[in-house]
What does this fold into?
Amino acid sequence: MIYLDNHISFGEDDKEALRILVREVLKPNSKIVEIGSWLGTGSTKVIIEELQAIGSGTLYCVDTWKGSENVAQHQEVAAHYDIFETFSHNVNLANGEAYVKPLMMSSKDAAAIIEDGSIDLVFIDGDHSYAAVTEDIALWKSKVREGGILCGHDCECRPNGVLRDAISSSLDLDYIPGAGTFFEVVHPGVVLAVDEAFSGSANLWAETPFSRPNGVHGRATLWDNQQLSTITGPSPRPPISHDTPLPHLVGAVSDYNIVLFAGVHYAAPQSLGALDLSQLDLASRPPEILVARSYDEIVLAITEVSEQEQPIPHLVGAVSGYNIVLFAGAHYALPQSLGPLDLSQLDLSSMPPAILIARSYDEIVLAITGGY
It folds into this structure.
């Protein structure tokens, strides 16, 4: 019996981020591996659609279709339904039979039969425990061709900040509450495994908002270990090594480019042109280059410099129907239903109750979500 409930585990922002990554490597007869396909309605469907667009290529779907042992919902569904039959049904609905090759086996067994350097993109979304993600990255890193992409799902943050202790003590759990982040939950095993595997240099799509084609802003939970030349769309890039720390352009605010390199966020004035961060001495860096640990801290630093001249509102996120705007040192949560607002004209004493305000990004997210 097939499982027909509409269980959504792959959101629209994640879909768009995956499309961007796939298009970076897509070519005739591309080979893509998906670790953890489950029902075939999330990342599987996205990749099928991209292969259909060029009319060739192969998606190897690696899964036991028994579900992750630490995910109760998986075990409940697997006990009552034929998950592989459900997957096959959904692949057929997507007209993906010509592109999909299921490998009903463990990730380790599948890696043993795939040739090194033969895959254009590997997408890891299987067992989310720390040990399993660490093993998957180690197994599949060598399978990716030079210039290809190793990436995955459900990496919502770095293993530091307010959730540092909760992450380190929950590595066998599928997820924990994500209070203080952009997301309702975070996956601690994925977060720590990805950070350790790439020494803090993996690109996290959660760290900056980007725009989908319909203009909606959001954040994805994907990670990848290659430099993206743009957040909003694909762009050619030269072949690079997976083992080299890479700078990632993660945003642009007030004429500054924000670059993540070796776990540090740099804000470099665009007027300086191209910079080689690997040669930059933090102690003697030019004073106009700002440095911070997190994306929110670097945006705040830019804002403080910019507002010495004139306060400027900065859209820094979107959560549960609210746009989060940093203005004059405060974070505002503005219901998207209100449309554009001129914060410079807003009187705090008569501020509409629907508009929330807090000092930090974490505090405004907590105000929006009620701590959940």
The two ends are 35 Å apart (CA to CA). Confidence is low (pLDDT under 50) at residues 227-244.
